[in-house]
Every structure is written in structure tokens, then in C-alpha cells.
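[Meeting: bench + compute handoff]

Bench side (C.D.) handed over the final construct sequence. Compute side (W.E.) agreed to return the predicted structure before the next meeting so the bench team could plan truncations. Sequence as handed over:
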Amino acid sequence: MAGRLVGKVAVITGGGSGIGRDTALRFLEEGARVVIADLNEATARETLDLASRAGHGTHVRFVRTDVAAEADVEAMLALAVREFGRLDCLFNNAGVAGAFGPITHQTVEDWDYTFAVLVRGVFLGVKHGARVLKAQGHGGSIINTASIAGLAGGDGPVAYSAAKAAVINLTRAVALELAPHYIRVNAICPGGIATPLLHRGNVEATEALLQKLQPWPEVGRGTHIAGAALFLATEDARFMTGAALVVDGGLTAAGSGVMKTFGLDQLMQTGAGVDRGTTGLEGTARPVV
């Protein structure tokens, strides 16, 4: 049976690990040609190796990309068109945990870094992705990774939550502008997903906490988000734009309050700094005094 993305070309930011990696591999399985964009070259190479071993080596490319740098975003999209001849789907997925700690102790630099990756990165992706799709004239799909943290307080650090809320509203606003061009713009709001960005190597403990927290009796995986992204990338979602699709195992339905449940609300009062996630760059932390 033919895959659902045969003949399609997708660009996936943050494709080196976690949700991005699982989505890249799923899209390749469904017949797409994929450009993986990531700041962390080591993890991206691991994804390329996995794709090659699955028989998809000729259908995938990698470009090192800082999504907060406009020239890098333009270059990744140009690579897709140059190597594969077109663009059909852009998944603005790259992310970091970003600034943490009491609001009174967060630095402007850490706050700006968080918004540069999580919001400016999506803005630049949408801006230049829309330019390519409009020029081609056959429409397409833009997908942005938001979070349940952007839907309510208490499900993420302050800066992260604010940034993800911005992504959701940016998605809705841009969907209106691009609808006449048959370009769909949607966001996915994951809940607790057991990826390296969350578990940091402490897999068993993280999964145990997630199972206690959410109603659905399975741990959230990157493959679950990849399935949602696949839906949004296909014609099955043709009449869907401006949506924030929640994929969280029932967390928001239960009124999660993740930070309080995990005791992170109090922990966040004892230290401040910035978490640069799986970018390969070192974060910082300092005690709150």
C-alpha cells in the first residue's frame, strides 16, 4: 500500500531527536522526502543513520540550523527546494525548555533566548515557508509545535508557557492570512512526552510520573505526536486550519497542574537560569538568594 505522503517534501526543525526525529522517520515511512534541520549535528547524524538503516537514505537530507537566525531558516528551505524540487509541509518543531526560576530572578538574556527559539523560530519558519508555498501555488501545510503549557498556567515554566501561548495565537492569526492560498497552519499541543528534552536520561522515573499524572494508561511518546503531525500534513486535514490540536493523554481534561503535581512550582523558586534542551549547548543555573 502506498504511503500517505508519497511525492511530498517536508522540512522538520528539531529533527535530530525526540518528537522531530520520530516525525521525520514516520514521514519517510509514508513516502515523503525530508529535510532535517537541527542545531545539534550529533543527534541529527543519529537520525540520518536510523533513516538510512530503514532504507530511506536517499530521501533525507540534513542542514545545521539555528531557527532563531533568519539566514539559517531561509537556507534550510532553499535546500529542500534545491534537493527535492518543492515544499509541501513545514514542521516548526525545534524547542528548548528555556528560562526557569522565579520571575523576579529571570534575566532578560534568558527570557529573550527562550522567545528567540520558541517564538521567533516559528515566526521565521512561517514567514519563509509561506513565501515558498505561495510561490509554488499549490498550497501546503505548516505545523507548529506548541504545548498544553500555552493553554493554561501551571503546566510549564513562566517563559516557556508564555512563549507557547504566543505560538498558538500566532498560528491562529497566520492561518487567516494564508487560508486564501490553500496554506493550512495548525499547532500541536503535546502534554508530557517522554523525549530526551523531558527525561534527560532519567527515563524510568519520568515515565512513572507521567503515568500517575495523566488519565490515559500509556506514556506519551514522540511517535504519538508524529501521528498527529502526519494527519495535519495530509489531505485528511484539508479543512482544518488555525487549530491547536491537543495530544496529551487527557492531561488538560483532568486539569493537570503539572508544575504543582511534580513539586516543580516550589523547585522553580530555589534556582534560576536557562535550559537549552537538546541543542548541545550548555545551560546555566544559579541559586535564588
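W.E. noted at the follow-up: The two ends are 61 Å apart (CA to CA). C.D. will use this when planning the next construct.
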